[in-house]
Specification:
383 residues; alpha+beta; FAD/NAD(P)-binding domain; D-Amino Acid Oxidase, Chain A, domain 2; 3 domains; 8-stranded mixed beta sheet; binds flavin-adenine dinucleotide
């Protein structure tokens, strides 16, 4: 969305803040929590409201690792980075689970594990190789040489430590535990590093003077600062959910087709099915439009009948879309804007913010406050 001269003219009242987070998704709320733990007083400014972006529209999988199969991650990034990303992921899921425990029943989650399943003999070979690579890295998992679901898959990797969550409830709990002030309905227009210690942030209702700013704007980051152009690409994901079923169809998080298809049962026994993006790259990549499309939804309908034929005739209760921020090299970006040293960022989760969000946010925070390297997710790798 563009902003007019009249909207951005600068007659808003000035507010001084210590630490300003932009974006109230899972990553913005985690950043607020971590900044408050580091002794800062935090305000979050959000264009819409908590978890109205990808954080409230996802499948709720807390799955360890990257989207690439482990041996592919080793080939692409090297063994050390693949392992570091695994550890960031473990750290992230531990962070969510601590917040869930602290929320005392307000966040629904289940320690259901996950199954990475093969749709074809070629994918089965990839999964077998990935299992061996995980084993070589000393990462515990269970390899199934046959389909453990009996639904026509070829083989699978099971990770019993993974889980599923209600992501809106999670974001709300993390926000509440952060102690931050939220200013909802307050879009950032632009920002300037006005002195070495002060960032001026022009928003719909206020002009903030902040000591520190952290951008947690994921898919929309290139609209906030040109630094992110070509580095974070908005990408649409689509989902459907059935009416409640008499019993859960699945008791695990399932994903297949190289991660492009994913499915789970909801807490009231609906089947949630998402993905199909790889058959429709031309419409799904490079868009911030969160409407559903006929092509992807037909792919999901066909997949539902192929893998879950017992659901023929079951009504679909809701279909939706969300916009993810895909990073240009597949790894999240944590860092500080080169021309604005008091503006940090944690973006580009490439469809894996529940897996990688909090661990990346913590590294971004340390980079902003103390200048330490963010390691594998440090955005300086792209400069
Ligand atoms: C269909 C779908 C399924 C997914 N499934 C999973 C899954 O199972 N597991 C997993 O790990 N990940 C999944 N993801 C990805 C996951 O949802 C994201 O990686 C995660 O939510 C990113 O969190 P975030 O806080 O960075 O981004 P978001 O939740 O998108 O938050 C960014 C926020 O910034 C705000 N904002 C943007 N611009 C401005 C501005 N100018 N001013 C103020 N505010 C602004 C937005 O309104 C938004 O609230 C899925 C995503 C989708 C769409």
């Amino acid at each position: 969305m563009t902003v007019s001269f009249w909207q951005a003219e600068g007659t808003q009242p000035v507010r001084e803040v210590d630490f300003l987070v932009v974006g109230a998704g899972l990553v913005g709320c985690a950043t607020a929590y971590l900044a408050q733990q580091a002794g800062h007083t935090v305000v979050i400014t959000e264009r819409a409201d908590i978890a109205q972006g990808a954080s409230g529209r996802n499948a709720g999988f807390m799955i360890t690792g990257l989207d690439a199969y482990y041996h592919r991650a080793v080939d692409k990034y090297g063994a050390a980075v693949a392992r570091e990303m695994w550890d960031i992921s473990t750290q992230t899921i531990t962070f969510w689970r601590e917040r869930i425990r602290q929320a005392g029943g307000a966040v629904r989650q289940v320690d259901c594990g996950s199954l990475l399943l093969a749709e074809s003999p070629a994918e089965a070979r990839e999964i077998e190789t990935a299992a061996r690579a995980l084993e070589a890295a000393g990462i515990a998992m269970h390899y199934h040489s046959r389909d453990p679901l009996g639904r026509g898959f070829y083989n699978a990797i099971e990770n019993p430590g993974d889980g599923a969550v209600q992501p809106v409830e999670l974001a709300q709990a993390v926000f509440q535990q952060s102690g931050a002030e939220l200013i909802a309905g307050n879009e950032l227009y632009h920002l300037e590093q006005t002195t070495p210690e002060i960032v001026t942030v022009f928003t719909r209702r206020y002009i903030f003077k902040a000591h520190y700013v952290m951008l947690c704007t994921n898919a929309w980051s290139a609209l906030v600062d040109p630094f992110f152009e070509g580095k974070v690409i908005p990408t649409r994901g689509q989902v459907l959910v059935t009416e409640p079923l008499p019993a859960p169809i699945l008791t695990t998080c399932g994903y297949s087709d190289y991660g492009y298809m994913y499915y789970r049962s909801t807490f009231d026994n609906r089947l949630l099915l998402g993905g199909g993006r790889n058959r429709h790259f031309e419409t799904e990549n490079g868009t911030t439009d969160d409407r559903i499309t006929g092509g992807v939804q037909r792919t999901l309908d066909d997949y539902l009948l192929a893998r879950f034929p017992e659901l023929r005739g079951v009504a679909i209760a809701r279909r939706w879309a969300g916009i993810m921020g895909f990073s240009v090299d597949g790894l999240p970006l944590a860092g500080v804007l080169p021309d604005k040293p008091r503006v940090g960022f944690a973006v580009g989760f490439t469809g894996h913010g529940l897996s990688l969000g909090a661990g990346t946010a913590e590294r971004a925070l340390h980079r902003l406050l103390h200048g330490t390297s963010a390691g594998a997710v440090d955005a300086r790798r792209l400069l």
